[in-house]
Design goal:
The protein is 23% helix and 30% strand.
Length: 164
C-alpha cells in the first residue's frame, strides 16, 4: 500500500462505476465521470476489496498535500521511472515511490516535496514535467491539478510497489 509519506484521504473515497454517472461543468468545460463520491470512511476492508479487484477505488489528492503524483500511462513505465528518478534527484527530490496501477504500462509516481504552498507545488511539478518532456514523449498527467474539478483530482489506489 501507499507509504506513510503520502497519506491517504480516508474520510471519503471514490467508487468507479462501469458507465458515466455524472456530468461536471468546470471552467467552461464539461467533464464526464464514472466515479461516485462515497462519504464514508475508507476502511482497510474496502482497500482490500480494491486490491482483490472486486472494486475500483480512488482517493482524493488534496490541494494541500505534501506531494504530487505523476500518473504515467505510456509505452515504457520502466524507462519513464528511470528518467524521472534522475531528474527528481537532480532537483533534490529524493523521496519518491512508484506504484503499479491499472495495467503493466500504468505507473503512479508519488513525489514528496514537503509542506509548500499548492501553487509552488504545482509549479514544481510543471518544472519536473517540462524537464521530462525533453527526454520522453509526454504520456503523463500531474496531480493535484488546480485546472481540474475536485472529482478529477483523484487517483485509483495503487496495487503494489512498481518493480519495473
Amino acid at each position: 500500500m501507499v507509504s506513510t509519506l503520502f497519506p491517504l484521504v480516508r474520510d471519503h473515497y471514490w467508487l468507479k462505476h462501469p458507465k458515466i454517472i455524472e456530468e461536471i461543468d468546470f471552467k467552461a468545460h464539461t467533464y464526464l465521470s464514472k466515479y461516485e463520491r462515497v462519504d464514508d470512511y475508507l476502511s482497510d476492508e474496502i482497500i482490500q476489496k480494491h486490491l482483490d479487484h472486486k472494486l475500483i477505488i480512488a482517493t482524493s489528492i488534496p490541494q494541500d498535500a505534501p506531494f504530487f503524483v505523476f500518473d504515467y500511462n505510456g509505452d515504457d513505465a520502466a524507462r519513464f521511472l528511470h528518467k524521472a528518478a534522475k531528474i527528481l534527484r537532480q532537483n533534490s527530490l529524493d523521496q519518491f515511490q512508484p506504484y503499479e496501477s491499472k495495467t503493466a504500462a500504468h505507473l503512479h509516481l508519488y513525489v514528496y516535496c514537503g509542506h509548500i504552498s499548492a501553487p509552488k507545488r504545482e509549479e514544481l511539478g510543471k518544472i519536473i514535467s517540462t524537464m521530462l518532456e525533453e527526454k520522453l514523449p509526454k504520456q503523463w498527467r500531474i496531480f493535484p491539478n488546480s485546472g481540474l474539478p475536485d472529482a478529477y483530482n483523484i487517483l485509483n489506489l495503487p496495487y503494489q510497489t512498481f518493480k519495473g
